[in-house]
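Quick review question:
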């Protein structure tokens, strides 16, 4: 029964990848000046969020947050007033859940600076809410693999909680398994919240991971063969040795996915 429930949840999450992310969407955005409001939020990145995209961060509504699967996704966002904003817009990484359905995004001030013409950022901020258009784009982390951050709450060998950082491409991680290096006895981890996964069934020794990501029209396994050493420590960040560069296919056609 447990396996069936896990499989059902996985299928539901995979179906969220068909929401036409690559299409251009018309909506609104509001802004915050404190970066802490977006780093300490529902994705669980904390101070590590600043390293994801130069501080260009945002909170997205439930359809973008996707129960945490949307954490780390990248979006190109531009406001629609050409007197105030550039046509390029800002490249923003989703790091929080926006519960206010008046806007699809709450953006940080760094993203606002990228979006605005020189000297216009404060004028945009004073408006409170602005019209925007946005589309999802692949995340690019040059010379940076997917990283596994072992959370401080972990206690070897009884409990392991990890946070996933620097996921490239345009997919979601919808499943995580862990096993001892060289062993085929995999234990599934649960999404605790956002980009944070955990398990109380911690294998002995050095640990390997495999990730289920949305890719093609189905899921795809990404295998990181040796990630955590046998003496892994809470608070440390480990290189997975792999990077996810896939772009998930979507069953929506046609849509406005033209180049800006």
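Suggested answer, residue by residue:
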């Amino acid at each position: 029964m447990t396996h069936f429930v896990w499989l059902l949840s996985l299928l539901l999450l995979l179906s969220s990848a068909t929401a036409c992310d690559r299409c251009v969407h018309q909506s609104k955005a509001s802004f915050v000046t404190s970066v802490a409001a977006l780093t300490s939020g529902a994705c669980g990145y904390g101070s590590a969020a600043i390293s994801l995209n130069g501080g260009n961060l945002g909170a997205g509504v439930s359809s973008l947050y996707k129960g945490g699967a949307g954490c780390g996704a990248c979006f190109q966002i531009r406001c629609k007033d050409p007197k105030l904003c550039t046509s390029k817009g800002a490249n923003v990484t989703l790091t929080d859940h926006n519960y206010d359905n008046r806007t699809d995004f709450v953006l940080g001030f760094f993203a606002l600076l990228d979006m605005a013409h020189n000297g216009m950022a404060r004028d945009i901020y004073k408006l409170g809410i602005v019209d925007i258009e946005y589309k999802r784009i692949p995340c690019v982390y040059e010379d940076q693999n997917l990283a596994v951050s072992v959370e401080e709450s972990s206690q070897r060998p009884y409990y392991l909680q990890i946070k996933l950082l620097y996921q490239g491409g345009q997919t979601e991680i919808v499943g995580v398994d862990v096993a001892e290096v060289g062993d085929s006895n995999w234990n599934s981890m649960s999404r605790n919240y956002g980009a944070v996964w955990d398990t109380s069934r911690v294998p002995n020794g050095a640990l390997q991971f495999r990730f289920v990501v949305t890719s093609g029209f189905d899921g795809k396994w990404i295998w990181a063969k040796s990630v955590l050493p046998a003496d892994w420590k809470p608070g440390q960040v480990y290189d997975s040795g792999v990077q996810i560069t896939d772009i998930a296919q979507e069953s929506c056609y046609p849509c406005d996915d033209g180049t800006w």
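Why it works: Residues 1-18 have pLDDT under 50 and may be disordered. The longest strand covers residues 218-228.
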